[in-house]
Amino acid sequence: MKTYRGLIEGFGGTWGSGIGYLFVSGRTVACDNADTARQLDSAFGNVITRDHLVDNRPIIGKDIAYSTEGPLLRGFTPYEHWLDAGRPEIPLGGCIDVVQDENGDFVQGEEDEPDPMPDEGQDEPWFDNPQEGRP
Predict the structure, then answer these.
(1) How many domains are there within the chain?
(2) In whole angstroms, what is the distance from residue 102 CA to residue 98 CA?
(3) CA separation, residue 65 to residues 1, 51, 75, 88, 107 (Å)
(4) CB 79 within 8 A of CB 91
(5) Which of 36, 62, 107, 133 is the most exposed, fewest CB within 10 Å of its CB?
(6) Is 75 among the domain residues?
(7) CA distance 28 to 50
(8) Closest C-alpha among 109, 101, 34 to residue 67
(9) How confident is the prediction along the chain (135 residues), in pLDDT tens digits per residue?
(10) 131 falls within a domain
(11) Chain mean pLDDT for the chain
C-alpha cells in the first residue's frame, strides 16, 4: 500500500455519481464523495455546511498522510496523528510503502518514489476490451 504525505489543496465531488476528488500537493485522488466529506469534517471540523455542501476553507493547506490502492483513496489522517501513532516519517511530497508485519502492525517497507501520473490518453488495461472484467 502506498502512503503519501501532502498538503490538501481542495476537495470536490458530486452527490449524484458518488465520486469525489481530493486534491493533494498537485495530485488528484479519486474517492467516495460522501465518506470522504464526512472524514474531512471529522478530522478538521466545519467542512460540511448546513446546506450539505463542502466548504474547502477549513482543509486547504492541511498536512495529511494518505494511502491509495491504485488510483483510489484508501484513507487519510492528519500528519500529526500519523506521527503520534508511531508511524514512520514521510517527507512532504514523499511516498513510502507501508506493509503489515507478522504482529499486524503497519511498518515502512522499501523507500519508494511517488507513482508518476499516467500519460494523457493512456488507458487503463480494462479499457482495452470494455466487456472484459466488467460485471
Answers:
(1) 1
(2) 13
(3) 12, 29, 9, 11, 14
(4) no
(5) 133
(6) yes
(7) 26
(8) 109
(9) 889 999 999 999 987 889 999 999 999 999 999 999 999 999 999 999 998 899 999 999 999 999 998 889 999 999 999 999 988 899 999 999 877 677 766 666 665 454 554 444 444 433 333 334 333
(10) no
(11) 82
